Amino acid sequence: MSAPETPPSAAYDSAFLKACRREPVPHTPVWFMRQAGRSLPEYRKVREGIPMLESCMRPELVTEITLQPVRRHNVDAAIYYSDIVVPLKAIGVDLDIRPGVGPVVEKPIRTRADLAQLRDLTPEDVSYVTEAIGLLTRELGPTPLIGFAGAPFTLASYLVEGGPSRTYENAKAMMYGDPQLWADLLDRLAEITAVFLKVQIEAGASAVQLFDSWAGALAPVDYRRSVLPASAKVFKAVEGYGVPRIHFGVGCGELLKLMGEAGADVVGVDWRVPLDEAARRVGPGKALQGNLDPTVLFASTDAVEAKTREVLDSAEGLEGHVFNLGHGVMPSTDPDALTRLVEYVHTQTAR
Ligand code: CP3
């Protein structure tokens, strides 16, 4: 399938998309990973009694939840409300998202016969995504919408382990012990992920983020050999749309260069590596996103501002900077602290 250059959207001249393209910006754009979610009372209210995965399949509800943080915080971009396991659910994988736990897979994928059950994703499988993004882009006007997907390694970690893991022992056992099965699994996931991102872009998403949240568990040599090819395939598949591609993982300081090389236009950085050092590691030609420690938001306003100032100072001179947290908003965060943070970054960086 060829990837047509989509016509410039209403969001084309937004600060967020300009920063991703490394163009001059009126202020540093801000959004937060997990900005939609449990930190907001209005989210908890509309989600009451509705299981997580079901909520992702209701276009009106998805639209409302995606818009909530935009209304409240004046962030520079919306992120589509969904989850990384939605495309797997859509092809019939028996999984659920358990509150306080995360994705749990009923029958983990450990053998070639298990792998055969992962069928292709078609746009019709996720028609609710197309519908919700249609509604959203109309409501958002010039505010960009970020689509997203889980990267092959992070999806594989849930599928092979059967749920969240600290050690990834089953996934790594497959990676080291049966490299052909592992490569085939990641390639399968890359195809599914590519379709899922294309659906979002064709429906109107004006940037995409590939979450390889748990890739930090890997040594660079293993990432390069056993994971990068699959992530690169995903990025390649969406290259022709002219839509910025963001790549993020936690604890990936040693992988930043490789994550850029996989095909990202913007590399997301967690709080462990200062942005100036991250820029040296990533090299020229890419924007950076990040990287305030999300737990800083539990400190006083003065402390939040001082730590934010440090992030902005280390971003001085970057080719492009999108302000974000180093990982997702924690559920117990005071939403007013987030609103104040957006305002602070905007005023501090106004040009
Ligand atoms: O605002 C946004 O960022 C958009 C929505 C979003 C969700 N999940 C909604 C969600 C996004 C971008 C994700 C991505 C996601 N999901 C990742 C990558 C990002 C990251 O945090 O590293 C991962 C690893 C997952 C898998 C997953 N889903 C986890 C670990 C959890 C948390 C489990 C828990 O209860 O603590 C989920 C559930 C989930 N996804 C929630 C939300 C708002 C919370 C569940 C709820 O509200 O009932």
UniProtKB/TrEMBL annotation:
| EC number(s) given by UniProt | 4.1.1.37
Q: Which GO terms describe its molecular function?
A: uroporphyrinogen decarboxylase activity
Name this polypeptide is given? Uroporphyrinogen decarboxylase
Q: Which family does it belong to?
A: Belongs to the uroporphyrinogen decarboxylase family.
Spell out the subunit comment: Homodimer.
Q: Which residues bind substrate?
A: 34-38, 83, 158, 213, 327
User: Keyword Cytoplasm, does the record have it?
Assistant: yes
Name of the encoding gene: hemE
Instruction: Report which reactions are catalysed by this protein.
Output: uroporphyrinogen III + 4 H(+) = coproporphyrinogen III + 4 CO2
Chain positions of site Transition state stabilizer: 83
Q: Which CDD domains match?
A: URO-D
Q: Which residues form the Uroporphyrinogen decarboxylase (URO-D) domain?
A: 29-38, 146-162
Q: In which pathway does it act?
A: Porphyrin-containing compound metabolism; protoporphyrin-IX biosynthesis; coproporphyrinogen-III from 5-aminolevulinate: step 4/4
Spell out the subcellular localization from the entry.
Answer: Cytoplasm
